[in-house]
Amino acid sequence: GRAVAHVGRARGFRVRVYMSASTPSASQERIRAEGAEVVLVNGTYDDAVARARDDGGVIISDTAWPGYEEVPQLIMAGYTHICDEAEKQWTARPDAVFVQAGVGALAGAVVSWFCHRYGDEKPRLTIVEVCRAGVPAGRTAGVSPARRRDGGGTAAERAARLPSIMSGLDCDEPSSLAVPVLQQGADDFVTVNDDQARDAMVRLAAAGINSGPSGAAGYAGVIARRPVGTVLVINTEGA
């Protein structure tokens, strides 16, 4: 949202960014500071996407659905630059990579990059999902073992779940482009709850890294799984 707002201001376009009302206020203000209108939606990330789809403007989203895939594919390609930059800084390939799911676009981009770059020698790729009140939110529905077991529950059951503080990852509908990539390339899935995200934020802050809850989710997954060796964690949200 902030990137779209920034480019919109530079190019003279009017930008509206739809966000869940539970999104941290600091994130909202950074987008407003770029000159965009922030539209808060009562509900989850999915609800915000649904409202944006009905806006009537040009949609810039990393959530893909049948008939809307070109722009999300370009955004996913952009995400792979994170891996390019990380590779320039490490001295040896990591043994494990933890990346948060959300709708799966970032996770799919990271999985694609490592599979393409390292093939059978790739590190173990773990996807971190949000767990609300003991039930995975289901962003990668049909991909992770947890999602295959319960299918995300009924619409009423999903609606009854309390929102997570990891609002940027609190999604039930996966990106159509991400699902096949994660099915083929991801090695493991782990769910984390709000308390685990808070703990990860505290630990990161102690190390001098100010992270928001969605950004800290990947590290929360590391704390939960305690992998051996060198671990790459991608933090997507500052505090």
Count of DSSP helices? 10
Shape: globular
The SS-based structural class is alpha/beta
Number of strands: 7
Helix content percent band: 40-55%
Q: How would a textbook summarize the main sheet?
A: 5 strands, mixed
Unreliable runs: 136-142, 145-151
Query: Averaged pLDDT, please?
Result: 88
Q: SSE order in H/E notation?
A: HEHEHHEHEEHHHEHHE
Compute the gyration radius: what is it? 17 Å
Beta strand %: 5-15%
Span between termini: 16 Å
What does this entry look like structurally?
This protein is an alpha/beta fold and 239 residues long. The protein is 45% helix and 14% strand. It is built from ten helices and seven strands. The protein has helices at residues 2-11, 25-33, 45-53, 70-89, 105-118, 145-150, 155-160, 178-185, 194-206, 213-225, and strands at 16-20, 37-41, 96-100, 124-132, 135-136, 188-192, 231-233. Strands 3, 4, 5, 6 and 7 form a five-stranded mixed β-sheet that branches. A two-stranded parallel ribbon has the order 1-2. A hairpin with a 2-residue loop joins strand 4 (124-132) and strand 5. Helix 9 crosses helix 10. Mean pLDDT is 88; it is low at 136-142 and 145-151.
